[in-house]
Amino acid sequence: MAKSTHAAASAPAAHAAAARPATSAPASTGAPAAQRGVTMADVAKAAGVSRTAVSFVLSNRENASISEETRTRILETVQVLGYRPNAGARALASQRSDWYGIVTEIVTAPFAVDIIKGAQDQAWLHRRFLLIAPSDQADATGPNQGMEDAAVEKLLEQRVEGLLYAATYHRAVHVPKSANEVPTVLINCFDADGKLPSIVPDERAGGRVAVERLLQAGHSRIGVINLDPDIPAAVGRLEGCREALAAAGLELDPELVVSGHATADGGYEAACEILDKYQAGAGRPTALFCLNDRMAMGAYDAIKERGLAIPQDIAVIGFDNQELIAAYLRPKLTTVALPFEEMGALGVQTLASLTAGQPITAHQQMVDCPLLERYSV
Amino acid sequence: MAKSTHAAASAPAAHAAAARPATSAPASTGAPAAQRGVTMADVAKAAGVSRTAVSFVLSNRENASISEETRTRILETVQVLGYRPNAGARALASQRSDWYGIVTEIVTAPFAVDIIKGAQDQAWLHRRFLLIAPSDQADATGPNQGMEDAAVEKLLEQRVEGLLYAATYHRAVHVPKSANEVPTVLINCFDADGKLPSIVPDERAGGRVAVERLLQAGHSRIGVINLDPDIPAAVGRLEGCREALAAAGLELDPELVVSGHATADGGYEAACEILDKYQAGAGRPTALFCLNDRMAMGAYDAIKERGLAIPQDIAVIGFDNQELIAAYLRPKLTTVALPFEEMGALGVQTLASLTAGQPITAHQQMVDCPLLERYSV
DNA sequence: TTCTTTTGGTAACGCGCGTTACTTCGAACG
DNA sequence: CGTTCGAAGTAACGCGCGTTACCAAAAGAA
User: Fold this and answer.
1) Last residue of one domain, picked from the residues A181, A196, A211
2) Does A362 contact B86 at a Cβ distance shorter than 8 Å?
3) Are B234 and B302 in the same domain?
4) Residues A153 and A232 in one domain
5) Secondary structure in 3-state letters for A154-191
């Protein structure tokens, strides 16, 4: 709780009470410094025109008839006075807020940030603001439904034009009811009731591309370090794995599939089990497909412990592209990336279509998981 | 760019054109479903009172005289109609927006998310909304000043009551001029002009606590894998290191300080240099203080390559607490954490004081960097 | 009984802006 | 010379709400 905050030795002056007084300095020098609270009426008065004229000029109205002369005069006045439009007032008058809301679990999120970034960038391009509301809260006792409802409620109070609902791992979710009042798109998750449009990673294609890469490198006996077999990610990735093998006329040996806890330790143990089951050349796999990068990290240790080299003796391929792991393991990990940024961006695009009343391409959109080649295959 | 979006096989129904029509259903059944666009006036009419009365009740006015009877009647009507206050209109009328803005580099940020989370949580507790604006943008050519100005400008258009400016690594920054129009607090950086209040990690105390831990474990000859010696983080941490040694009557041997690139590879090379400079027992350090976790990751490899055990032969301590590295290395890395969340939270608290006109405790507040004990010492 | 105070409200203004309907004026037209 | 018409601009309303000033009736006080 960061109690020990003390004055810094390095900062010479101690502007302690730096709070700005809220008093308005009515008419300062004619400096171009933006004065607080300059309104459209002020601009109008200073330019000697009506407020309406200013509004017309600033909103670039097509069929407004304003002479080029007054037009430039108004724009100059805007500059001089440092006028800045009031987004809230504009929203009130025009009945459109230019805001989207996103509710997501920030706390437990190594990935949420990527979704947010993708969405944020795209929203910025669409000249929209993205309001972020946490669906989990520090002082709440776990991620409770109450928080989510409150988050959606707060967002709706801000009159967001659309809602994004993002999960940090691919799964089915229940979205608060009030989300129905506004166009809503799910990201990295799907509606358990099947009503809302969603955007998810194409796990199956990802699994396929991973195993295809191993096959292409000449491996035919491939071990799989599996996640909890019930979650959508595991189902899809394993299915893709089977497809790739089948296309090469191979089958997945159930003996070579080991499920473990989705951690480095879990990966370590699973890798040990697979590696110790066979002798080299006598059925021992020459490649490991780890269904996430954390497990790949553990597998690395198991492999190195046995004096084996990556990728010469055993090739490893991961999933997720957890940057801080994959890019810093030695050798760097070849892995399949989860397209969080793209999903975030696509979410905003979909929302934009929806709010514009346009049809969307599909109820559930799947985004490719690209292979990231590094040095472990 | 996520081109291949195709209909999902798993989603049965194809609610393709799910766009909601914007037509208002004037008087639906008396269902309790929240009708879009219920206003305070609607509530007033339905409850048979004036709009003022509703406003008084909803804002819990102290000295308003509303009988308990009408009060409950109003509240019931609010429930029934599903009235939801319009935050924008409220902001306009009350001249306070309840919004803070934060501008930060999301792109290049393994850490920015933590700052945001801390700030977000705290803002939520203060019943404030946090608007996030990116200071770097996907299509921009690098982090340019133009983007930052635009970000601040956009935030001010939203009439944020205060501004947070966050960097992802501790450094001096230049803040856009217009930030002066509103209370502003810097997080994980400081104003090059020395005007704005800031919140930074106490690097020196962090360096001290790290080395104290090593000393306590019986190490007296400690190697240091340094960052670029010029950045504030390196200066502070090294200073703390010297202090701890001095307190134990020791001095820092310049021979044992090696600077490297702030990556795993840089750490690997630096560690190799230190380890190969001496024989075991003949001056070779028994512990390494790595000034960040990525370098510690490389150091691990150098140590293991030489057949040495962590922490039995060589103890390692890191800095930053980059979760995905520190918590998954084997053995798990003891490190000093950068208090991003705390800094974010403290930033909002400071902003709250500032906007309330209260004095703040110090121009620059330093937040402790706690030691995280794991298994590498 | 008359005057004052309290209780329980309401009318009306303004926040900053988008938007529609209207006015004025000079030029072209018949 | 009267009429029409476009150009240039303005008055005024309303978005949803906070807030101040005011009012009517009931309850005490003198």
Assistant:
1) A196
2) no
3) yes
4) no
5) HHHHCCCCEEEEEEEEEEEECCCHHHHHCCEEEEEEEE
* Residues A235, A322 within the same domain: yes
Boundary-marking domain end, from B169, B196, B223: B196
Assess if residue B366 is contained within a domain: no
Is A92 close to B107, i.e. CB distance below 8 A?
Answer: no
Q: Is B127 on the interface with A (CB under 8 A)?
A: no
* A34 falls within a domain: no
What positions of strand D are covered by protein, i.e. any atom < 7 Å from a CB?
7-12, 14-21
Cβ–Cβ under 8 Å, residues B167 and B115 = no
Neighbouring residues of A189: CB distance < 8 A, sequence distance ≥ 6: A165, A166, A167, A170, A171, A172, A173, A198, A200
The answer on A264 and A332 residing in a single domain is: yes
Q: Apex CA A340: angle with CA A335 and CA A345, to 5°?
A: 140
Q: Is B352 on the interface with A (CB under 8 A)?
A: no
Q: Which of B200, B279, B130, B222 is nearest to A133 (CA)?
A: B130
Mean pLDDT of each 10-residue bin along chain B, 377 residues long:
39 32 34 64 96 96 88 96 96 94 76 86 89 69 67 94 94 93 96 95 98 97 96 97 98 96 95 94 94 95 94 97 82 96 97 91 95 96
In the predicted model, what is the mean pLDDT of residues A146-156? 88
Question: Could you tell me which residues are beta bridge partners of residue B100?
Answer: B130, B162
- List the CATH number of the domain containing A130: 3.40.50.2300
Does the C-beta of B97 come within 7 A of strand D? no
Q: What is the CATH number of the domain that holds B44?
A: 1.10.260.40
d(CA A57, CA A65): 10
**Domain count along chain B:** 3
Nucleotides of chain C in contact with protein CB (under 7 A) are: 7-12, 14-21
A257 and A331 co-located in one domain: yes
Residue B119 lies in a domain: yes
Residues B102 and B68 both lie in one domain: no
Cβ pairs bridging A and B (under 8 Å): 255
CA distances to A233, A340, A366 from A197, rounded to whole Å, are 19, 17, 11
Instruction: Name the B residues in 160-189 with CB < 8 Å from any A CB.
Output: 178, 181, 183
Judge whether A5 is closer than 8 Å to chain B, CB to CB. Answer: yes
Cα B168 to Cα A224, B51, B104, B207, B297: the distances in Å are: 37, 48, 8, 19, 20
Mark whether A169 and A215 lie in a shared domain.
Answer: no
User: Does nucleic acid strand D have an atom less than 7 angstroms from the CB of A221?
Assistant: no
In this structure, the answer to whether residues B132 and B218 fall within a common structural domain is: no
In a domain, B262, yes or no: yes
Domain span at residue A279? 203-337
